[in-house]
Write a structure and sequence with these properties.
1% strand, disordered C terminus, 16 helices, disordered N terminus, two-stranded antiparallel sheet, single chain, mainly alpha
Length: 509
Amino acid sequence: MHSTDIAHARTPEPATGDRRRWFALAIVMTAAFMDLVDVTIVNIAVPSIQRDEGATFSQIQWITAGYALAFAAGLVTGGRLGDIHGRKRVFLVGIGGFTVASALCGLAVNPEMLVASRILQGAMAALMVPQVLSIVHATFPAHERGKVFGLFGAIVGLGAVSGPLLGALLTEGNLFGLEWRPIFLINLPVGVAALVLGSRFITESKAPRALKLDLPGVALVTLALLMLLYPLTRGRELGWPVWGYASMAGALVVFAALVAYERAKGARDGSPLIELSLFRVKSFAAGIAVQTVFGVGLGVFFLVWTLYMQIGLGWSALRAGLTGVPFSVAVSVAAGMSVQQLVPRFGRKVLQAGALVMAAGVLIYLAEAERYGLGITSWQMALPLVVMGAGMGLIVAPLTDAVLSEVPREHAGSASGLINTVQQMGHALGLGLVSVVFFGVIDERLAPAEVGPAFVDGFTHALGWVAAVLGAIFLLMFALPKRPAQHVEGAADAEEAPVAGEKEPELVP
């Protein structure tokens, strides 16, 4: 779930008798669900898109990485636009744009148009998603928010389970002969309904003294990531040209320029895109590193896993989707136990155990893939997937709280936005690295009989990298506070802390 740039705002208490707030909740939760499902639904359809459209493997990477990159680059700005221009207004623009982009994805006539439409979809999600929790804070009184956030957790779990299954059913169903296209077109009726109902039932709210936009900061972040990702995804098929290495080295220079610019902007008007003072908090700096590296690992695994099952093993989208159900269920169960029972008792050790358990699942999967080769069954995958899912569940739910627990209260909003931004950037980087850790060990021209064994070999090679990433995460977690669930004095409070620079939101009837 994206706990994106949450407007942890103290709101004038809304009237508890107003039934419209429950309609508003249903609408914003539907939007959050659309975004969550859209991230996972595409992975399962990737082999069908590649087959039907003749997309190159670098285009396949960009169909997923383009969304993540645009989403990451726009998250903090999306939250700021809501504070300045009204969260309801920006939410409606976001969901309208997301619906249009979904239509363009579904109607794409070639891989290039699909990649461009996915980038637009990610940019629109960056407008839509940050408003969701802001609207909840502005709409519900404090005593009801616990129940509301509980519902949010259920929606997240449902999105994780239903995305791959829904993608598989829509792809396999081949509705009206449209092949993979219904995975995008299904957003149209949902988006139109949310737009119409949202304009009627959501209450407008804004921050009268919100931070200014930092568009040069956004441009520098985006440029640096493109300079890094583009050579990574295209390098293999272009024969790793010199300009690719120069571009990746230049990305570091642009990142350095970004830091210098953000420092100057912070001193000038107090509204940088990235609040650099946060990185002086050891637990936050370590947590951001964990989120980034974790995003890289997940980005590599999920795309490679789909390609392995559907192209390597020749499984249908539906079989691949059903194979992933034990993983999703294990994540949901472990996440609930982690937050409610384990972290309050054992603190940071739970997150570290999660990294080791997930790594153990990856290594079991690697051993089974090597042992059974093309004869592996869904049942044989169930054990490593349950172990991996349990490990991931122990990490994902309490990690944000651990990262924020020592952040000064006035920077809570900026910090939560940055957490989600770097996780998405890590995800995009992981998708870019697929060309190195997976396709890098597969010959470009394979006879049909060679495809399966080559993809199995590529999959086990990529799993070795994922296990190494999880080992790095385990070590980085030593810098997190021992008791992440117990906030220190003056630290970020998820219920009360306002976004940096934000005062009482002004409710607009």
